[in-house]
Automatic annotation (TrEMBL):
GO cellular component: membrane
Keyword Transcription among UniProt keywords: no
Keyword vocabulary terms for this entry: Membrane, Transmembrane, Transmembrane helix
Domain of life: Eukaryota
Protein name: (wild Malaysian banana) hypothetical protein
Region of interest: Disordered: 195-220
A matching Pfam family: ROH1-like
Family under the similarity heading: Belongs to the ROH1 family.
């Protein structure tokens, strides 16, 4: 979807849904319109954002969905989008009438740093979308194997079994290549993006406190419209988390408390991008990033716990060599190994026990295939929505800064 033509959400969400975001957008433009000059309104909205973030990560920590499963990742993105709307509403209210000067130091620097992180997050979204497309291609190999092993109700012959083994072996090789290449063997060949092809609009090239244009030079400055061959997910995460420090007391006072929500959303953005890279095959994946939040934040304990759990899981032997920590990828790998062992070699006649084991393996593989078919479609829609909404929020935020610099 062309970024500049985007006027709102047109895609459904898996759980929370578009309706909640639509309601929140209406609140941004109606509630704030009547509270611009209410001194207590800002404090209430700041507290509401902290509670929203705390509830999100507490829910994710205690969720019935397995950590880094498709359902869990979709819930994370749903919650992030709602928090982003809360933050957008705060900035909108401040710029429209609360008389908080967004361009006054140190708030201007904090906001510029946040918008710079948002630009870097767009590249992660592009890489993740490519990773989702990679998973789709892997699923097609599963479908070939399932079609061969289903037999159409007929007794399986040697030719069908060999065809299934060939599809599974080719898929296993693809996944091994992906692990060894760190995600760069296939993903970098496409260079697609959610955004519009061609040159980037001038006002989207603004980034960072210095207002420098984002260029394609360097490993993590790829204009967000595509992921270059030298791009690195690990370095990109380090760039997003660079200098992400909690606000000091004087910064909180000097910014009318706005330093707190800026740090909150920067931390949430960082964690969401880190979790996506952990789950989905990406070019040069790496999770060795520093993440720390002071305990005085209501959401600190839950988000830190999730970060530690994911990182510890990544160090497990069966996860360490994986091309992605998504639960469904791990399940897929187990199914491939099990069925490949059963089909290698293809010996006839089979014992009744081996036929039963094969049938159970096929059922398990079919379950994985169906889960990925539905889940990947929804996940791509949400990642696309995160991309578009991040672009929109950044553009609006830069406009707010510009108006603060040049009041009417």
């Amino acid at each position: 979807m062309p970024t500049m033509d985007y006027q709102g959400s047109s895609l459904p969400f898996a759980s929370i849904g578009r309706s909640i975001l639509s309601i929140r957008r209406d609140q941004v433009h109606t509630v704030h319109a009547g509270r611009h000059h209410d001194p207590a309104a800002l404090d209430l909205d700041l507290e509401a954002l902290q509670k929203r973030v705390a509830d999100l990560f507490l829910d994710l920590s205690s969720s019935d969905d397995d950590l880094l499963s498709l359902a869990w990742v979709r819930k994370l993105l749903d919650g992030f989008l709602v928090c982003q709307e809360e933050f957008r509403g705060i900035l909108f209210g401040c710029s429209q009438g609360r008389r908080v000067n967004l361009s006054r130091p140190p708030l201007d620097r904090l906001l510029s740093d946040y918008f710079d992180r948002a630009v870097k997050a767009l590249d992660v979204c592009n890489a993740v979308r490519d990773g989702i497309d990679q998973l789709r291609r892997w699923r097609r190999h599963l479908e070939i194997a399932l079609a061969a092993l289903s037999g159409g109700g007929r007794t399986l012959g040697e030719g069908q079994l060999r065809r299934a083994r060939k599809a599974l072996t080719e898929l296993a090789i693809l996944m091994i290549d992906e692990k060894e290449a760190g995600g760069g063997s296939v993903l970098t060949l496409r260079n697609r993006s959610f955004g519009r092809a061609g040159k980037e609009p001038p006002h989207h090239r603004r980034a960072g406190s210095g207002g420098a244009a984002v260029s394609s030079s360097g490993h993590h400055r790829s204009l967000s419209w595509s992921v270059s061959r030298s791009w690195s997910a690990a370095r990109q995460l380090q760039a997003i988390g660079n200098n992400l420090t909690p606000p000091r007391g004087n910064e909180v006072t000097a910014t009318n408390g706005l330093a707190v929500p800026v740090f909150t959303m920067s931390s949430v953005l960082f964690f969401v991008m880190w979790a996506l890279v952990a789950a989905i095959p990406c070019q040069d994946r790496g999770l060795q990033t520093h993440f720390w939040v002071p305990r005085n934040f209501s959401w600190a304990a839950s988000i830190t716990s999730l970060h530690d759990r994911i990182f510890e899981e990544s160090k497990r032997k069966e996860r360490k060599s994986s091309c992605g920590m998504l639960k469904e990828i791990h399940h897929m790998e187990k199914c491939i190994r099990h069925l490949t062992e059963l089909l290698d070699p293809v010996d006839f006649p089979w014992t009744e026990g081996k036929e039963t084991e094969l049938r159970q393996g096929v059922e398990e593989l079919a379950e994985v295939c169906n889960t990925m078919k539905d889940g990947l479609e929804q996940l791509e829609r949400q990642v696309r929505e995160v991309f578009l909404r991040t672009v929109r929020s950044r553009t609006e935020g830069l406009d707010c800064l510009s108006k603060s610099h040049h009041p009417e």
